Amino acid sequence: xxxxxxxxxxxxxxxxxxxxxxxxxxxxxxxxxxxxxxxxxxxxxxxxxxxxxxxxxxxxxxxxxxxxxxxxxxxxxxxxxxxxxxxxxxxxxxxxxxxxxxxxxxxxxxxxxxxxxxxxxxxxxxxxxxxxxxxxxxxxxxxxxxxxxxxxxxxxxxxxxxxxxxxxxxxxxxxxxxxxxxxxxxxxxxxxxxxxxxxxxxxxxxxxxxxxxxxxxxxxxxxxxxxxxxxxxxxxxxxxxxxxxxxxxxxxxxxxxxxxxxxxxxxxxxxxxxxxxxxxx
Length: 281
Ligand code: AMP
Prior knowledge:
Blueprint: E1 2-4, H1 7-19, E2 24-29, H2 35-47, E3 50-55, H3 75-85, E4 89-91, H4 95-98, H5 116-120, H6 124-139, E5 143-147, H7 151-164, E6 169-173, H8 193-198, H9 200-214, H10 220-232, E7 237-242, E8 245-246, E9 260-268, E10 271-279
Parallel strand pairs: 1-4, 2-3, 2-5, 3-4, 5-6
Antiparallel strand pairs: 7-9, 8-9, 9-10
The structure holds adenosine monophosphate.
Adenosine monophosphate is lined by residues 29-30, 36-37, 39-40, 146-147, 149-150, 173, 175-176, 183-186.
Protein name: Pantothenate synthetase
Subunit structure: Homodimer.
GO molecular function: pantoate-beta-alanine ligase activity
């Protein structure tokens, strides 16, 4: 498995692939890869001749008080996990390669970025769209793979691709969970044993919501109340948001009649975790 660190080199390799008529899938990640990332790589491998996994902890999507410097990193493990899942190479640039001195251009999507994660993390999506736009220009993939785990991120990228005419097909892949229901995340390593147990309230509260919806409950308020009560029973958990939104516009829904997304963000100790599910698609 090759580890490519410069834009020049990845461009040369992809250009050779394209000349030979190969299709290219891109899986953008921040590394510390787990089975969630691997499921994206596997799907990319099944649908493309070549797969580029980018590993880049993107500073522009972190705000000053977030975990940029402590974000977990393990490039050896990333190489192994990527290889195992069928990647062709890893693109792992330095920050100075992606943001050289004088860098001063950003991509910003509006609307879908202003709610949920965007409301709690105001500069986050500007960083995401900028780095993903750059990766699309550098790698020029036919398809790019994102996880439903970050449902809003996938919606934001779809908006960017539509609005700016990137010739890329965006593919959204299902959430991969631990056996007990916790959504896999690189940030799960921050959790102590006690916090890891407490973190189960996220998936458990979503399960409760699913059950209510299946039984015909239409009131978003009632469902959110039940979820809030469930999470509040866990002393280590602090709710950032619990929302029920239209699956596409991400705007709040009061009466559930069409497909909805139920995204939640909960702090477990110092670790902020997100999870979600879509109902009625
Ligand atoms: P990250 O490294 O956290 O930026 O994630 C890179 C990509 O992997 C994003 O598109 C995520 O949505 C996706 N991803 C992360 N965790 C999971 C998971 N548990 N299941 C599916 N996709 C995931």
